[in-house]
Amino acid sequence: MTCDNVISTLAPCLVANGTDPGLAQFISILIGVVLVTMAPLIIVIMLIWIERKFAARIQDRLGPNRVGPYGLLQSVADALKLITKEDITPAGADRVIFNLAPISRSCRLF
Predict the structure, then answer these.
(1) What's 70's DSSP letter?
(2) In a structure prediction context, what are the per-residue pLDDT tens digits for the chain, which is 110 residues long?
(3) How far is Cα of residue 59 from the mean position of the Cα atoms in its chain?
(4) SS3 call for 75
(5) Rounded CA gap, 58 and 61, in Å?
(6) CB within 8 Å of 25: residues ≥ 6 apart
(7) How far apart are the C-alpha atoms of 108 and 110, rounded to whole Å?
(8) Which of 37, 63, 88, 100 could form a disulfide linkage to 53, CB 3.0–4.6 angstroms apart?
(9) 29: helix, coil or strand?
(10) What is the per-residue burial (b if ≥16 Cβ within 10 Å, else e) of 95-106?
């Protein structure tokens, strides 16, 4: 049974069990969207892990091996670290100019 068959038969199954037809259609579309978006994200996480292991092998070190089994959750840990990183702007600085400075330097806007 392919994924398309599962999604197309999910809405009638939900309607048969008493779910509103509009809600059943929304749930089946939502599940399809989640499946389509999760596959590339998982592939990217695995490719990052492979690249980091390969670079570690070339540099004669272990590579990611502390977070999760075999270091597979290292990308998740890196994302959490970036999300929780504190954004510091000096008290006397103009906030807009201070935050635009790295962009203007790389793009040569000014």
Answers:
(1) G
(2) 555 566 667 888 888 888 888 888 888 889 889 988 999 988 988 899 899 889 988 998 877 888 888 888 888 888 899 889 888 888 888 888 888 887 766 565 45
(3) 27
(4) helix
(5) 8
(6) 11
(7) 6
(8) 63
(9) helix
(10) eeeeeeeeeeee
Q: Are 35 and 11 in contact (CB under 8 A)?
A: no
- H-state helical runs in the chain: 3-16, 21-58, 74-84, 95-107
State the Cα–Cα distance between residues 78 and 90, nearest whole angstrom: 25
With beta carbons less than 8 A apart as the criterion, state whether 31 and 5 touch. no
Distance CA 26, CA 74 (A): 34
Q: What is the pTM of this model?
A: 0.57
Q: At what angle do helices 21-58 and 3-16 cross, to 10 degrees?
A: 150
Cα distances (angstroms) measured from residue 39 to each of 35, 90, 100: 6, 41, 35
Q: Terminal CA-to-CA distance of the chain, rounded, Å?
A: 58
